[in-house]
């Protein structure tokens, strides 16, 4: 099992460019999440999806959109990147059966 | 109000000593779960330990134990016999009710000194 995979690992964008961060999990989990991690701030929830076909805003959703394409995949889109979106982005998945969220390796995004 | 508070931005501990990382939480939901994750310099998030609000005993996983004091709303992580590989950021997190979302603290950077 690969667990949670994310692509790309690194990305540099110019202000105003768009991009999509991809996330997939092979654990058949219902719930998936996108977090961002900034120095001194811990991880903050951007969006989450409790099940296929549903998405909800987290703590810091502005500037982002998400798509739960199917049970495996949950993508995060930046329509018009801003320097404030420079961060490390983590995707995670979970199921109520387990007392753990499983994290992907992260994507380091820099917006110039 | 912060839901998860980690008051120690950084700690230095001698190798082989025990270390306690502090975490306090705030919730009015009687059903909740508390988690600790480790993030080494390589960046991945590693799950360490979980404590449910109704669990009667403190959780333990190898050298990790969770000192759960419900009345004080604290869930401190205790690492026994620290090793150089324990140097990392440590995050406390909480899940409330039937919701699977996690709220994270700001983390503690632990450095083990040889």
- Assembly of the depicted chains: heterodimer
Question: How would you spell out the order of helices and strands of chain A?
Answer: EEEEEEEEEEE
* Main β-sheet description of chain A: 7 strands, mixed
Question: Which two chains form the greatest contact, residue counts included?
Answer: A-B, 24 and 21 residues
The low-pLDDT segments of chain B are none
Taking pLDDT < 50 over at least 5 consecutive residues as the criterion, the unreliable ranges of chain A are: none
Query: What is the percent of helical residues of chain A?
Result: under 10%
With helices defined by DSSP (H or I, 4 residues minimum), what is the helix count of chain B?
Answer: 0
Radius of gyration of CA atoms of chain B, rounded to a whole number: 14 Å
Topology order of chain B in helix (H) and strand (E) letters: EEEEEEEEEEEE
Mean pLDDT of chain A: 94
Helix-and-strand structural type of chain B: mainly beta
Percent of residues of chain B in helical segments?
under 10%
How many E-type strands of chain A? 11
Strand content of chain B: over 45%
- Strand residue content of chain A: over 45%
Q: How does the overall form of chain B come out from the CA principal axes?
A: globular
| Anisotropy-based shape of chain A | globular
Terminus-to-terminus distance of chain A: 36 Å
The biggest sheet of chain B, with number of strands, parallel, antiparallel or mixed sense and barrel status, is: 6 strands, mixed
Strand segment tally of chain B? 12
């Amino acid at each position: 099992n690969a667990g949670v995979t994310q692509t790309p690992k690194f990305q540099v964008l110019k202000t105003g460019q768009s991009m999509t961060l991809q996330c997939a999990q092979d654990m058949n989990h219902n719930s998936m999440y996108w977090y961002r991690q900034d120095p001194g701030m811990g991880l903050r929830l951007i969006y989450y999806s409790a099940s296929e076909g549903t998405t909800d805003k987290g703590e810091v959703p502005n500037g982002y959109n998400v798509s739960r394409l199917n049970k495996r995949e949950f993508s995060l889109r930046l329509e018009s990147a801003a320097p404030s979106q420079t961060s490390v982005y983590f995707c995670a998945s979970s199921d109520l059966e387990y007392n753990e969220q499983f994290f992907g390796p992260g994507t380091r995004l820099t917006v110039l | 109000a912060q839901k998860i508070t980690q008051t120690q931005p950084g700690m230095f501990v001698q190798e082989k000593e025990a270390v306690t990382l502090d975490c306090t939480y705030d919730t009015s939901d009687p059903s909740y779960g508390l988690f600790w994750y480790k993030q080494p310099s390589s960046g991945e998030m590693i799950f360490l330990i979980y404590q449910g609000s109704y669990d009667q005993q403190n959780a333990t996983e190898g050298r990790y134990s969770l000192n759960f004091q419900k009345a004080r709303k604290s869930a401190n992580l205790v690492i026994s016999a620290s090793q150089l590989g324990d140097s990392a950021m440590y995050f406390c997190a909480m899940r409330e009710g039937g919701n699977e979302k996690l709220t994270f603290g700001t983390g503690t950077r632990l450095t083990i000194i040889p």
